[in-house]
Write a structure and sequence with these properties.
CATH class of one domain: Alpha Beta
Strand order of the largest sheet: 2-1-11-10-12-13-14-15-16-20-19-18-17
CATH superfamily of one domain: ANL, N-terminal domain
Oligomer: single chain
Number of strands: 25
Largest sheet: 13 strands, mixed
Strand content: 15-25%
């Protein structure tokens, strides 16, 4: 029989993070490139806490928001969006972050499915709101994230944020309730059929933020200056809006400024030391740096996730600009962090080529994330760095079900979440993703890693982006088709790419054909849309092969 300890049973509350930031890091800044004016706005954590309490009073007294209600945001990263995170969850309601890049029909469906009672939105999305508002009868209030001077940009009857909070008191006692109460709702676009909602709890969000602060994760501290380029509508900006105030770090919010020139200006002006975002963002910034002979010497590390880090991108940033590229992996269902790539002491004396091999792995498990790799029959595979299988995870910030019971097939009978990724683990806990289950190219009974083939192709000097897609083949079941977006001004030379790949991948991995595309289809979260490529090439036949 175990002996019960005498520790206090104090619930983990998201609101406590902001209280702590006010008490211990009150003068630290949140810097925002304002969405409505593209001007720089500054306020500190103490001012933010006061404004958040005004908002909490407005939510409960004027907008009729009650515990458990869903309140949606369609907004860029800003100080106001940050305030919404804490005020909505702090009163016991649920922050429903909505991705504005989705199809309007999906947004209408999502707001109805979530039963969101109010929607806060940035001025850039006024046309979107005007287009969908009449079809969202469940939304009682639309609130423009600005002041009254911008209200004429919206045709929909709406309130304005600054007017909503203006006359409310800065006094508000944050309630304490069950830490397992929902605080956030994010829909994943990585599943088939309708998007599926993931409900985060106060407990899971606080624990995830604490893990994020670890030295071998993001290493967030009070001296850090964090620029989350990953949007707050995409898995809570990877938890940075919780981890930064918990640590007392300065936050730089880019608003809609996700282009290379704007990011460089913010990084340079605010002495940004840590940046997080998807590979397409870093490709855009790299193109700007190279075209304008600029540098980002104050940046110490870049966390890259959403899709695999191409070797060419890693080498460009590290070798030319001295910026450490740090790969991570996770999912909406995982809050999202699961692994982060940080070197071990034994790697200190590795050659540069061997070091890069380690860096191209998705990283080591973050404490709190349990993982197993299983074969098609569900048998667990060894951590030998070679045995690839289906990735399953569990832990205190990993979903145990989807909102309203959708997608039950994604969870095993013994309580693991099936990620849909295919990977192997080595003895040090480093995970290497070889593919998505649905993207694996099966040729003659063997697997080709589309990720490895794509990354190899992107090392070619004329290739901007590459996607490998399995196409039907009468003899081999499937063979790889490589779709390439060439760099501006580069010759579209398939033979040159095949010759280059011949020294990079096994011969039987070489694509049977290469097709060039003007612009790679990019999804709402910055990832390449292979589903769209499969539609484009649905009836594709390899040259010289009879169907």
């Amino acid at each position: 029989m175990t002996l019960r300890a005498h520790m206090m049973d104090v619930p983990l509350m998201v609101s406590d993070i902001l209280v702590h930031a006010d008490n211990c890091h009150g003068q630290q800044e949140i810097v925002t490139l304002l969405p409505e004016s593209l001007q720089i706005h500054r306020q500190n954590y103490s001012q933010t806490h006061k404004r958040t309490k005004k908002l909490a009073n407005a939510l409960t007294n004027d907008l009729g928001i009650e515990p458990g209600d869903r309140v949606a945001t369609i907004a860029w990263n800003s100080h106001r969006h940050f305030e919404l995170y804490y005020a909505i969850s702090g009163v016991g309601a649920v922050v429903h972050t909505v991705n504005p890049r989705l199809d309007p029909k999906q947004l209408i469906w999502m707001l109805a499915h979530a039963e969101s009672k109010a929607v806060f939105f940035d001025v850039q999305f006024a046309p979107l709101i005007d287009g969908i508002a009449a079809m969202c009868p469940g939304v009682k209030n639309w609130i423009l994230l600005s002041d009254a001077s911008h209200a004429d940009k919206v045709q929909t009857d709406c309130l304005t944020y600054e007017e909503v909070i203006k006359d409310h008191s800065e006094d508000f006692d944050w309630p304490v309730f069950d830490e397992n109460a929902a605080c956030g709702l994010c829909y994943t676009s990585g599943t088939t059929g309708d998007p599926k909602g993931v409900l985060y709890s106060h407990r899971s969000s606080v624990l995830h933020a604490m893990a994020t602060m670890g030295a071998d994760v993001m290493g967030v501290g009070a001296s850090g200056v964090l620029l989350p380029v990953v949007p707050m509508f995409h898995v809570n900006a990877w938890g940075i809006p919780f981890a930064a105030p918990m640590a007392g770090a300065k936050l730089v919010m880019p608003g809609p400024g996700l282009d290379g020139a704007t990011l460089h200006t913010l990084i340079d002006a605010e002495d940004v030391s840590y940046v997080a975002g998807v590979p397409t963002v870093w490709l855009g910034l790299l193109n700007y740096l190279e075209a304008n002979d600029k540098r980002i010497d104050n940046v110490k590390r870049v966390l890259i996730g959403g899709s695999a880090l191409p070797e060419a991108l890693l080498r460009a940033y590290e070798d030319k600009y001295g910026v450490i590229m740090q790969q991570g992996w996770g999912m909406t269902e995982m809050s999202p962090l699961g692994t982060v790539n940080v070197a071990l002491p034994k790697h200190a004396d590795l050659s540069r080529e061997d070091e890069i091999k380690i860096k191209l792995k998705q990283g080591r498990l973050v404490f709190g994330v349990g993982m197993r790799i299983v074969d098609d029959e569900g048998n667990e595979l060894p951590w030998d760095g070679q045995s690839s299988g289906h990735v399953q995870v569990r832990g205190p910030w990993i979903a145990s079900a989807y909102f309203k019971g959708a997608g039950a097939e994604s969870f095993t009978d013994d309580g693991w979440f099936q990620t849909g990724d295919v990977a192997h683990l080595d003895g040090d806990g480093y995970m290497t993703i070889t593919d998505r289950s649905k993207d694996v190219i099966k040729t003659g009974g063997e697997w080709i890693s589309s990720i490895d083939l794509e990354n190899a192709a992107m090392g070619h000097p004329g290739v901007e982006m590459a996607a490998a897609v399995g196409m039907p083949h009468p003899k081999w079941q499937e063979r790889p088709l490589l779709v390439v977006q060439a760099k501006e001004g580069a010759e579209k030379d398939a033979d040159s790419i095949i010759k280059y790949l011949s020294g990079q991948v096994p011969k039987w991995w070489l694509p049977d054909a290469i097709e060039f595309i003007d612009a790679m289809p990019i999804g709402a979260t910055g990832k390449m849309l292979k589903t769209k490529l499969r539609e484009i090439y649905a009836n594709y036949e390899f040259p010289g092969v009879d169907a």
